[in-house]
Structure formats: C-alpha cells, structure tokens
Amino acid sequence: MIATYQQRSQARVDAALEQLFSATRPELTRIYQAMRYSIINGGKRVRPLLVYAACEALHGDLDQADGAACAVELIHGYSLVHDDLPAMDDDDLRRGQPTTHKAFDEACAILAGDGLQSLAFEVLAAPRHNPDDAGLRLSMIATLARAAGPAGMVGGQAIDLESVGHRLDQAALETMHRHKTGALIEASVRLGALASGKSSEPDLNALQHYARAIGLAFQVQDDILDVESDTATLGKTQGKDQAHDKPTYPALLGLDAAKTYALDLRDQALHALRAFGDSAEPLRALAHYIVERHN
Predict the structure, then answer these.
(1) Is 295 domain-assigned?
(2) Domain residues for 286?
(3) Is the pLDDT of residue 28 over 60?
(4) Contacts of 148 (CB under 8 A, 6+ apart)
(5) pTM assigned to the model
(6) Which residue in 52, 60, 64 sits closest to 7, CA to CA?
C-alpha cells in the first residue's frame, strides 16, 4: 500500500512544487535554479505525505492540503541546504547528488535556502491550495513558523552543533531530536489536519501523540542507517555522525536496543490512532515505513 500511496502523493506535491520556481526576472534565473535544484532532486517526501495522510484521515479535501504539503517540503529543503554547508555538517552529497553549495557555490546556497524558507510562508498564506478561511491559514502559518524556528528545527540544530564531542543522556538526545527532526514532522501532521477544516481538539491531540512518536522514530532509524547502510543506498555520506563524534541512539543505547526503541515508538504511534477508522490507514502505513525504510 505505502509504495502506491507514496508514488501518488509524490507526484501530486511535485507537480505543485514545480510551479514555484519560475524566475520573475532574467537576473534571478540562477537563484531560482538553485532553489529548484534543492527541492526537485528526489527525496522521499515524507513530510508532504504526512500532510496528505492527516488530511485524508479526517476526510478532508486534498486540494486544500497542497499548500501545506509544499510548504513543509520547502522548509525541509531549506534546512538541508543550510545543514550541508561547510559551517554546519560540511557535506558534499545529498540524495545521491552534489549538495547545493557544491553544484552552485556557498553564497548561492545560503540565498537559495533563505529563498525556500520565505517561499514556504508565501505559499501557505495564499488562498490557493489552502483553506479559504483566513483565520485557519493564520493558524497554519503559526504552526509552521514555530516548528521551523528556535522553538523547533533551528533550536535543534543549535543543540546538535553544541553537542558534538559530548556524551548526552537519552533525555537530552530526545530533546535535541524532538526539535531538530520531530518538530517539522509534528507540524506536517497538524497542518494536514488543519487543512481538512474538520479537526476537533481530540483529533488534534491524538494526531500529536502519533506525530511525536514517529518524529522520534524517524531520527532513531536515521541513526541506525548511518551505522548499517552505505553511501550509495543513503544518497548521503554514510558514517558521518560517527566520524564527527555526534551523539546518536546506537552510540548511546547500542544498535539492537536502538532498533527495539524504534519499533516501540512505531507501536506508540499506531496506538494513538486507535480511535480512527480506515481513513487513517495511510498514517498507519507511514508509521511502519518510517522504521522499515533503508534510506
């Protein structure tokens, strides 16, 4: 099921994203090319999939979720461009291709990341591909801003940089990853629910529990793959975390215990969806996919 759902959702969000990268002036062609390169170069599109799946779980209209699906992928793309920079993770490979600062140059990559971030909010603010209700769109913008900023992804990256070479306990490691990785995953699920226009507080609470579990599971599995996989499969440099002495779940818990923890988080996510019917099957399938993926 998940492969078909993923293909359909990827095609949907890619078609919407493709419309965003036409330069408005000739002299802006290169920056738009760099922005497009950073987004339309593969990727699993997990966050847009979560937007669509959460919207569907509440029987929403996917036409109202396209804006949110694009916005979360733009924010994710901007974060990867900046994470790969020499001042951050200093990586040469992303999704099997040269990173943006290698394909273009460092200054252009910084500006491309900045452009993707601002474009995400422009897309989410527009009535097209979003709910007509301006108040609902404002709530969605606030959700994404919090997840992307110092209370979310940016804060997590700051903690990550400060943690290199230090041994974190499990609580500290989870705090870092609930910000760095989990915040945008949680926002994706919430945005999809809000885009449906049919979300109740109990729905949002249940989906938050689901999203918190899979957000952490995603990072645990990433850490496992950094140990077990290879560069060709991952599409990025394998073993980079260990080489940079970064705190990870396998390093803290051991590889087998990390795998058990990922499965436990998956089960927590599935339990959070117990009140939802068949419409939440894509969310359930995504919980399985997140801990079973190989890249």
Answers:
(1) no
(2) 2-290
(3) yes
(4) 75, 79, 117, 120, 154, 183, 184, 187
(5) 0.94
(6) 52
